[in-house]
Structures are given as C-alpha cells and as structure tokens.
Amino acid sequence: MPDFSPELRKDPITGRWVIISSARAQRPEAPEPRREEESPEARARCPFCYGHEEMTPSEIFALPNNGRSINTSGWITRVVPNKFPAFGIYPEISLRRVGMYQMATGYGAHEVVIESPEHETYLEHNGLDQISRIVDTWWERNVDLERDPRLKYVLIFKNHGKAAGASLAHPHAQIIATTIIPDALKVKLINARSHFENGEGCIWCRQIEHLFYYENRIYNPDGSVLVEVRQRDRMVAENAKFIAYIPFAARMPYEIHILPKSHQYSFIQTTEEERGELAQMLKVVLSKLYVLLGNPPYNFYVHSAPNLNVRPRTGDYTTIREDFHWHIEILVRTTIWAGFEQGSGIYINPLNPNDAARYLLETAVE
Length: 366
What we know:
The chain is built from eight helices and 17 strands. The chain is α+β, with helices and mostly antiparallel strands. Strand 12 (235-238) and strand 13 (242-245) form a beta hairpin. It is globular, with a radius of gyration of 22 Å.
C-alpha cells in the first residue's frame, strides 16, 4: 500500500521548505476546457485587437519590423506601454529617507506584449512560427531594455486567466524593468554563488545531470527499500535544447520549470534556433496543461541574470556568468495559498511531484 505520509522537502536553490501531502490527490479527470465569460461589448472594446491600435499608447515595437507605419494593422506581435504602469520613465532617479524609511523614484519600464491579432486564442494554440515570433519579441525587448544602465533587472511574465491576475482576455504577456533586483531573484543569486564557490559548479546544471542520471535508495534495517528516488520520473518533456520538469520541492501541483540544456546565464544569450526550440517546448508543456486540467489559470515568468551593463563584473557579479542559469517557472493556480502558507512561507503541495510529472507525460498532445 502506498505511503501517503506528509513529508518535508527543501528546494536546493531557494532553501525554501515545502510540505508534500498527497493523501487525497488523484489523477484529474480531464475536464472540459474552461472559458471565462466575456460580454460582446467587452470584446468590441478590446484595445489589443486588430484595428484598435489607436486605443493603446503608441507602440514601442512590432513584428514584422518591415517599415510598416506604427499604430496600424499588419502586425504579428505588438508591444505597447502598459496603460496603468507599475513603473515609469522619469528625468532622474532619486533615493531619499523619511525617518527610518527609504523611498525612491519609481523609474523603470512596464510593457505589454500582445501575442496575436486573434482575440480568442491561447499561446499554446498558435502555430510554432507564431510562438517563435512571440519569444523573439520577448528577446528583442529584453536586449533593448538592458541597454539602459539604470535598469538592473528585466522580468518577462504572463498571467493567464482571471484567477492568475489577467485583466484582459486577449492573449498577452508583460515585461517590467526596474532599478532594483527582486528579493526572489536575490535569494537564487546568493545560493547559486555559494554553491559555485563550494566547488559544485552551476546548481541548475547539476539538477539537469540528476534528472538524467541520478537514482537513490534508502533502506530499512531489514534490507527492504524505504524510499526510492528516481529523478527522471519528474521529467515532463524535452527537446534538443530544453528540458521541462517538476521540481523536487514543487510549491503547488504541476509547477513546471523549463531550462536550457546548455549553460546560459541570460535569456539574451539564446540564438534564433534556440528560441525556436523554446517555442516548441512552451507549446508542448502548455498544451499538456490545457488538456489535462482544462485550461487552468497560470503564471509564468522568465528568471534571467541581472543586467550586467549596470556595473563592471565585480562584487556580486564576479561569477554570475558561471553560477547562474536562466529558466522559466510555470505556476498553475490549482490551489490557494491560505493562512499557513502566507504566515509561514512554507507551501503545502497536495500532489507528489512524481505523480504530477507522470500525469503530464501520459497526456497526449499534437
């Protein structure tokens, strides 16, 4: 009989503890894909649709970039400033204190990447050419924003579904560039550097090695197997350049990480060929989630190295090219982080990561 006793797992990169409590977890019964209600009036007013270009702030970038007049139809992907930005362009950056508190000008960029002229589509339902253009658009904007030495960090992210924070149905992602490095990334940078300085190399490269080669057994005193850990059981998909897997200490069911197989510290290092492979991986992984869970709400984000144009390669950045490995994290909103999670910072995952990976592997997609 399977042992469903709760267990604590520690994430080797963040140091975060997670409780795996899978006593009641079952394979989902492939529900009908959910579609959020939208009135015809809302659709008619959608600022991201073809022919509504005048309803957005003036575009920053678009594909194809072939001399077409800005703010007109004929685009495949389009980037515009967020109409309600979290950050903005100010003449100067100022830092000041008010008693024990610090304040700073909210200098930065907040952009919207409109993924398609089509209103009723999802990223994974696009053809590979279109998804490749979306990924290329992320890359173009990432490269351009890092030319500003005041911007320390660029975050590419996507909210899919109202439960994941999407305010508009038309498929889009967002990009925020800031003068600060987010705490979530700082923890990874510190731990990655510590791991590297201990002579253990890149911690993400080591995880990839474990996924392919590592098996371990812990035995009872009588010689029977108490625990068997087969890392490859957490693999979800792979292609020539990327792998997708469920983390050992996944925070929630179906949390998925996508990594380049070759060591790269920054998303901007990717070639056009690699971005095409990333598009294929995103299509497969998101299609599996769509089929298995019925179009669930999710967030994903690209964690890349900070902008190395900000300062010389000294101090915290000394080994970043060797110790950091850019990646994508997908968080599927199938559970709610309630009082315990919010108060303790410890997450309860009701599904064993190996089972989640198996369900996804068994889910056939085109």
